[in-house]
Each structure stands twice: as C-alpha cells, then as structure tokens.
Amino acid sequence: MKKFKRSLSRSREDAQKTQKESQNLVNVANVKTGVYKKRFQKWNEKVQWSENFTEKASVLLTEDAGFLEPDEDEISAQISQEAIVNSVDITSATKRFDLDLQFGPYRCEYSRNGRHLLLAGRKGHASGMDWTRKKLHFEMNVMEEIFDISYLHQETMFAAAQSKWVYIYDQTGIELHALKVLNKVLKLEFLPYHFLLCSGSEIGYLSWLDVSVGKMVAQFNTKYGRLNIMTQNPYNAILCCGHARGVVTMWSPNVRTPVAKMLVHEQPVSAVAVDTKGLYMATSDTNRHLKIWDIRMLDGPLQSYFLRSSITNLAFSQKGLLAASLGNIAEVYLDPCTKEVKHPYLRHSFTSPISNINFCPFEDVLGVGHGRGFSSLLIPGMYK
Amino acid sequence: MKVKTLVRNPDHYLRETKRDIFKVPRNYDPSLHPFQGPREYTRALNATKLDRVFAKPFVGNLKGHTEGVSALGKHPSRLSVIVSGAYNGEVRIWDLSQQTCLHHLQAHESYVRGLTFDISGEHFISVGDDKTIKTWDVENCGTSKHPANVIISKSVLLGITHHRTENKFATCGEVCQLWDETRNEPIRIFEWNVDSLHNIAFNQIETHVLASCASDRSIILYDSRETGPVRKLVMKLRSNQVVWNPMEAYILSVANEDYNIYSYDTRKFNAPIMIHKDNVGAVTCLDYAPTGKEIVSGSYDRSIRIFPVHKGHSRDVYHTKRMQHVLSVSWSLDNKYICSASDEMNIRIWKARASEKLGVLKPRERDALHYNEMLKSKFAGHPQIRRIARHRQIPKYMFNARNQLREAKEKIKRKEANVRKHSKKGTIPHVPERKKHVVEVQE
Q1: Burial B162-180 (b: 16+ CB within 10 A, else e)
Q2: Strand B157-162, strand B149-152: pairing
Q3: Of B31 and B285, which is predicted with more confidence?
Q4: Strands A175-183 and A185-191
Q5: Are A233 and A274 spatial neighbours (Cβ–Cβ below 8 Å)?
Q6: Residues 6+ away with beta carbon under 8 Å from B180
Q7: How close B4 comes to chain A (CA, Å)?
Q8: Residues of chain B contacting residue A318, judged by C-beta atoms under 8 Å apart
Q9: B350 within 8 A of B305, measured Cβ to Cβ
Q10: How many CA atoms lie within 13 A of A358 on its CB side?
Q11: DSSP E strands: which ranges in B300-380?
Q12: Is the minimum CB–CB distance between B35 and chain A shorter than 8 Å?
C-alpha cells in the first residue's frame, strides 16, 4: 500500500510537470473575446484532466518495454538472434523458435490479440496454433494450393484462398463455407471493424464480403490485372493495392473507382505496408527502392532508400518499426519514416527465400514464413 | 550488449480463483482503437433504437370508481399511497405498489373538487360540491367511514391546497379562504372581485405565497401574511390549474384553455418565460416532477405529455385507446411514476421515463445504461438519431388535429405578414409570441 501511495504521489508530481510543459493547451491570454476565452479555458481544463489521468493510469502499466543497446564497438544489426536468446530471460527465449516444414513457401498470420498463429504452405498445408503455449489447434492438408490465409474477427475462424475458391474453416480445421463468389484469390485481408473479408484476385477483381451475413458488399474490376499486393490502412480500412505499373491505388467499397491513386515507383511495386496510425505508407519496387509516403496528404516521398536487393515483403509494427524481406534476409528498421536510417536495427538471414513477414501484436516477436517453414524472431523494443 | 524483451507475467493476467472475475486489461492508446467516432455513433444509434423498443410506459390501472375521477392527492411521505375522488363523491385510498384499493368511502354528496394530505400524512382533507370540508383519518377510515372533522363552508368550494410546513390550508371557490386545521372558521378571506376561483396552490418553498386561477381568465397571487391579494395577471384565455415549481420558488406554471402551458417568473410577471406547446386540446391539469425539471400535463385531447421545463415541446406523449379526458395528474415523489385520473373512471400508473427498466439494476447493467445515456446525449443532434428519438406514434385524431392547428397558425401568420406588407411601415408592430397571451397585470 505504502509503495502504491508513493508511486501515485510521484505520478502526481509528474503530472504537474507535464501540466507546465503540455503542448496541447491553448494560450488563453491571446484569445480576445470572452466567449471563446471561456470555451478555451474549458478545453484546457479537459486536456489537463485527461493528461493527469493518463499519468496516473500509467502506474497500472507494470511491464517495461524491451530494448537493445549495442556496445560501443558494435552495431545492433550485427547482433545475432542466438546472442539475443542467450541474454534474455527464459520465457522470452521460448518465443524464438523455428518450424521446419516441407510444404512451403509459407504464409503466416497472427490473431488480433497476438496469441494465435496461422500458417499456410503453398502446397496445401494449413495449421493453427496457440504459439505462446506451443499448443496445436489443428493441422491439415487441403490437397490444393493455398495462396493466402487470414483470421476472421476471432481466432475461431479463418479464411483460406485456395487454388479455385476461398474457404472458411473453423479452429479445428472443419470446412464451414466454400465461397464460390471469391474466385482465384491471391490475397486476403480482413477488416475487423467492418466484418468484411477483402480479396484480390488473379484477374484483377477486388471483393468485399460481409462475413456476418455472408453477403457480397462490393466487387469491382480494378483493371490493373493481377492483385497479389494488397494491404489495409488500419486507420480507415481503405485497401491499398500495389500494381505492376508502379502505382498504388486505394479502394473503398462505396466507390467503383479508386479513391486515390499514387504513382510511387517507376518499376512494378513489390510490397506495400501502412503503419497502424495511418500516417505513413511504405512501398518498394523490384528495382531495390524503398519509399515512405505521407498517406494522409498523399505526398512524398518523405524518405527514399536504395537497398542492396529488392524487397519482397514489408510490415509495420504497432510501434512503427518497419520489417522488410530482401530475398532470404529479414531486416528491421527503427523509425524509417521520420528520419533517414543508415543501418537496419536487426538483421537475420535464412537458408531459403522469405515468402511472408508479420509482426506479432503486443509482443517483441517477428514471424517470418519462408520456403522451409516458419521462424519466430525476437525483436526487442518493438512493442510498448 | 544490453538486451531485454517485453515479458508478461501470466499471474497478472489470470484470475486467482474460479469465482474471480475475468480481468480485461485495457490499453487506452488511441492508435489501438481506430474508428472510435463511427463505433460510438453506431452504439448511440442502437441505444436510441433500443430506447424506443423498450418504451412501454404503461404500468398499471386502478379500477374501482364508478364515475369519472376528478381529483388526486399524493401522500407527502409514503410513495405507495394516493387518494382519489370522483364525480359521485366517492373517495378511494389506493396502494400503488399492490395496485389495490385500500379503502373507499362516500365522502361527499356530489363531485369531489379537491384532495390534499396534511403535513404528517395521517389525515387528508377533501372538499366537494356540497360545500363541506372533511378531514379523514387515513388509518381509521376503513373501519369508521366517518370523517374526523367536518366544516361547513358558507360559500362554494372548488379547490384545496395544504401549507408545506404549518397546519394551515387554503380553499378557493367564490373567495379564497385560509383555514387553520384546529378551527372551524377561516382565519383569513381574500377577495378580488372575481366570480369564482377554481384552483389554488401553495408555494412549496416560499410557503406563505399562494397562487390561484380565476374564471375571469386571471392568475392571482396572494401572500398569506397580508390581508389582501398581491398581484393579478389576466390572460387571453382561462387557466385550469396552477402549480409551483418545487425547486425554484418564483416559478409557476399554468395549464391553459388555449392548449398551451405557460411558465411565469413571478418577479417578472408581464410575460411567460416559457410556453410549452404540443397539446391539441385544452390542458386540464399539471404537475411538476419533484426535481423541478419536468412538467407533466393532462389534456382534454385524451393524452398526457411530459415537457422539460426549458423546452417548448414535449419529450414524450402517453395515450391509450380507452383513456378519455385526463382530469388530474400527479408525479410521484421518487420521480419515477406518473398517475393520471381520467373521465372513464380509471386511474393509470405510468413510468415517467418510458423505457426505464424497473427494479434493481446490477452494477454492470447500470454502467451500461449510463454509458448509453451519455452516448445518446452526445449524438443527440445527429439527424438520424434525432429522428428516431423524436418519433412518436400518435392517434389519428391527434395527428389530424395537430396538422389543422399548424395550418391555422400558418394562415394567421401569413395574413399578418400580408397586412403588414400593405400597410404603412411601423403601423403593425411585431408582437413577440410571449407577449401575445397576456392581457394585463394588476397590482
């Protein structure tokens, strides 16, 4: 109790400090009319209250964020996963593992709470597991190609884009639906706040399917050909598709034409990723470029990088780290959007080309699907 | 190299025993909760719709009277007790929680005009057309059937009201009389050249002040410490009932024959501070909520309407197929129920808030309802939500009457505008709505 009191009082002092420093307050002295003066005073009170509240509530966040500090004579990208595993605690060390599987290349997908993992091999192998406990939910072979896999709103159901149609399975691998309206799908995305399963097909059709009632909400021909690069903007649930003409198009189910189009590269786009706050978009092309764009202004590039080899996959973490796969190498960049980075934060190489890369929400873990299975890498300091 | 990864101790996230609740850790980082606005809007919309789905205000019906019920009196301290008086002079005492009649007595020879409890709640006083004031013992009236006291008045009696703290009451009729409970003669008589006064009310805060409605379309204020009446306001049409706001000493509201309710500030008596419009018949009765924030009105158009005191239009309307002209309404002192007495011999119990859940609420349920209330108020201005929240199904006659009234009003407005257009500038002044209904104030 004593300890708690002390920590509370400390946070109060901190709160007072932030009151002085707070950037969000309006300087009332500059406001001329009385009505607005009162209004802004009220606004300031609200801001101060909420800031104090967050300060106090931070007492409840007992976990500290991870970090990685290299010595003076080394850079962090040189640090191997083995070295990290040897220095962290046992529980964290168990989060680094490799799955040696034969039906690759593999795609991976974490559930929204970061607890469950879904793997799909191109040669038909699908499995779901509670990866923190290493508990297998199901494992099966659909005897068809699987192009992409995606959890629906919970870990109890998932959709798999197979060679002909999209199928929905439950947690034990039982087939619930065969969605014959979704034909020859290459990429799946699920919009959790709209209950929409989005798919991009081989012949250029974009579809939004309402999974709560099973009704097709919209289906458009994008007229851009094969849609194998697609991601969602988590801030506004707009789909961003990368095309061979070097264009990124953004789609909403309400409009038949793209709501925005950006010419981002001179070569075909190879990967697109949008950060969780909906501020930045990272794109890469087949000619080894990586560009960061301001997605709200449709402006940029804010940063432009030229890499050693071309990027095949991109992923943003919740804290804004960017992971990229370059052939068989996975690299993670620390804050590449706001400032220019010289070196990757961490790097790991595999024996086979990487097919998919995904950050695990709420954990310091990066999941990598590659030709010979799946690997879970430790990336300290990724989530606060 | 120094390295540490994020570690979560499972003990902090699991419940300790099977009976413990599941802890839900929350991270308030807004980037983890996108679509906050749209999601809240959907919740507000659903809450508003559910509000209409659960809007079932009718609680129960007290039957037993064999004539129309003309008067209601509420007990000052017990929520479950009310008394009612009918056209044939019968008075009934009701238990609201059981919805049963406790006692019934033939109090007067004809027409019970008014009923009121004394301050202790042990007695109630009734006045009738037989010119008697009868005091009844609430406990014993089941056995004795005789009043504890009878006063025979010299003049006609049309209304009664009891003082908030002292053993005094006032009656009205030809004149306004102030009585002491222990004496058989009025202690004071107030007159102001009026044919008859048909309603009277003691102020609940400034307890010496009285207000009364007279048949010459006036509202008269009295001070029981002085010998004469204080002030008189004449309106264009007659007022049927006057009530004082129980929280604001200087505010009174009157139910008027011209279908409106007028709230006056007695300090500035020459114009109403608010006109409550929506009824399509003469307003016969009124009562304030004990919070002083809402008014319930019963009308000749067979409906009950609830008005927020600061709004010109009603927030809700209650009606049933069988309810006829409403003659008396009373808002219960716990601010939850409304009783209405009507022409067709029934007393009806209504919820004050139509969709409120009755009974004990569990904490989570209460929190959820509170959250929904906040959402509804936050999004109240959105067109779709406002439309759903405002929509009421009303009987066809009421709907048609409303349209007719609207048309008539527009016609008058149009005509006035035309006359003004063709007259010399300034000869036809704009009279504000609030000044239109007051004729004069006499001191």
Answers
A1: bbbeeebbbbbbbbbbbbe
A2: unpaired
A3: B285
A4: unpaired
A5: yes
A6: B167, B168, B187
A7: 5
A8: 31-32
A9: no
A10: 24
A11: 304-308, 316-318, 326-331, 337-342, 347-351
A12: yes
Structure tokens at A29: 């002295």
Q: β-pairing, B337-342 with B209-214?
A: unpaired
CA distance B161 to B21: 55
B50: closest CA of chain A, how far (Å)? 21
Chain B positions in Cβ-Cβ contact with residue A81 (cut-off 8 Å):
none
CB-CB under 8 Å, A383 with B34: no
Residue keyed to tokens 């009201």:
B161
> Which CA distances in Å does B286 have to A41, B238, B239, B295, B341?
41, 15, 11, 7, 12
Question: What is the rounded end-to-end Cα distance, in angstroms, of chain B?
Answer: 93
- Dig out the tokens for B155 from the structure: 């003049």
Quick one: which H or E segment has residue B441? strand B438-442
Dihedral over Cα of A304, A305, A310, A316: its sign: negative
At A15, give phi and psi (nearest 5°).
-60, -40
**Residue A200 Rama label (left phi>0; alpha psi -120 to 50; beta):** beta
B443 contacts B221 by C-beta, under 8 angstroms: no
- A342 CB-contact burial (10 Å; exposed 0-12 / middle 13-18 / buried 19+): exposed
> Cis link prior to A301 (omega < 30° from 0)?
yes
Average pLDDT over chain B reads 93
pLDDT at position A13 over 80: no
Amino acid at A97: F
Residue B1 at interface with chain A, using a CB cutoff of 8 Å = yes
pLDDT band at B152 (very low <50, low <70, confident <90, very high): very high
Model ipTM value:
0.77
